[in-house]
Design a protein that fits this description.
The protein is α+β, with helices and mostly antiparallel strands. It has a domain of 130 residues: Alpha-D-Glucose-1,6-Bisphosphate, Chain A, domain 4 (2-Layer Sandwich). The chain contains three helices and six strands, in the order H-E-E-H-E-E-E-E-H. A six-stranded antiparallel sheet has the order 1-2-6-5-4-3. Helix 1 packs antiparallel against helix 3. The chain is rod-shaped, with a radius of gyration of 49 Å. The termini are far apart. This is DNA repair ATPase. Keywords: Coiled coil, Signal. It comes from Rufibacter immobilis.
Amino acid sequence: MKGNYTKIIAGLALLIFLGVSASAWAQSPQVEEIEVEVNGITRKGQRIMVPSDSKAVEKAWASYLKEKSGGAVKGPSLLPTPKALASKGIYTVESGKMDTISSKPLRIVSKVEAAQGGTMVWWSLDMGNAYVSKKETAQEWARAEALLQQFARSMYLQDIQQQVADAEKVVVNSQLEEDRVVRQANEIQTRIAKNHQRKLELEAALVANAQELEQLNKEVETNLKQQEAARLQVQNMRRAVELVKAKADKVK
């Protein structure tokens, strides 16, 4: 039981720590400007660290891109409908419509890869005449940065929620184990009570047995005396018979 309580306390401490760290991290996930080579072409873009499993991040990122850039596109009929394509962690969207960043269609090239401590998410936004960059397109940069931070926060919170769910399972399992141990303790106490009652019964039986043995020994002594008395009586009767016979012989 002590081990279970330790697990619960440790779990609660972890949840408090995660809550504080989540609040602090979610306020300002850092975005950096960096050039990355994708399919032989170097592009300028934004990168952020997401402290979550790369497989989960990659799946969520594809959905996030589709959600933010999908839908009908205004423009020439030959302009393809935004569609996310993936190849070894590389996701691209042709002519994505992201009004929150720019009124112009965007060509998005992104890359998701595992890194120490989590997963790196990088994307490059091509507005047709320029890449979104910190200096040249500060306004678009800030908007794109906000979207990237939003994604990172959502993934981090999702990861925290999963940890909370896991911690809650530990608490539930610990409670079940505690209940089992309590039931076991009650059963042991019941068995102890029965054992004590049985002991009393056996002790009473031993006393009765000793009394019965004492009575039997007395009966044996009495019986021996009775046997001796009967033997003497038989002897006396035999003597009496002999005397009567002797008198009868004299008469003849």
